[in-house]
Amino acid sequence: MTRRVVFLISLLGLVIPVSTGFAQSGTLDHAPTEIVKRYVTLDQKGVRLDAMSFESLAPYIDWQEEPVWGRVVIVEDAVVPEDYRQWEIVDRLEVVVPVTFRVLGAVYLETATFVPEERTEEVRFRVKAIRSRWRITEPVIPPHVGLKRMQNFVRDAELKEPDAENRRTLAALGESLRKAQ
Fold first, then answer.
1. Which of 2, 43, 92, 150 has its CA 20 to 30 A from that of 172?
2. Beta carbons within 8 Å of 147's beta carbon, 6+ residues apart
3. What's the rounded Cα separation, in Å, for the pair 111 and 154?
């Protein structure tokens, strides 16, 4: 009997932290900006560069597939406003949150080139309550990846590339990204 009780208590000790620690975010009692911040942070870390990691975005978005992008926007920073007065409040269950990106340029995947273009870009994320959770419904924008992450991505691709000419192209891309710092 005592062994059973000890077993059940230790089993509960394993189950309870896991269920609370990995609880899905985005409940309506939290600000919709939490979803936007998490999405933008994951995007800057390059999650959308790998098709296998798309599932990690599922708790934050309301679309099922990631389009094929011809370019990746390279960003230095993103600002998500906490102040609700900066949002467009459509109604109690829908808001538009403006996110300001400091853009350094874009990497065009077809040609493996970096085109520097320093500017500020505002993206207005529409966030709606869907199935009792906040979800980003639009826009579906190209990946907005941090410079350091993109440099690492290109370096890794260069190391794995078997073709010498493609390695040279990736090395040139890596060099142009290093100059963007």
1. 43
2. 74, 75, 76, 104, 177, 180, 181
3. 13
| Domain residue limits, the chain | 27-145
Per residue in 140-177, pLDDT tens?
999 999 999 999 999 999 999 999 999 999 999 999 99
CA of 11: how far to CAs of 2, 7, 67, 120, in Å?
A: 14, 6, 42, 51
Residue 138 has a CB neighbour count (10 Å cut-off) of 14
Distance of alpha carbon 27 from alpha carbon 85, whole angstroms: 21
The answer to whether domain 27-145 has CATH 3.10.450 is: yes
Answer for the pair 43, 138: CB distance below 8 angstroms, yes or no.
no
Distance from the Cα of residue 90 to its chain's centroid: 24
Give the bridge partners for 108, in sequence order: 71, 113
Distance in angstroms (rounded) separating the CA atoms of residues 105 and 113: 10
pLDDT tens by residue, 33-58: 999 999 999 999 999 998 788 888 98
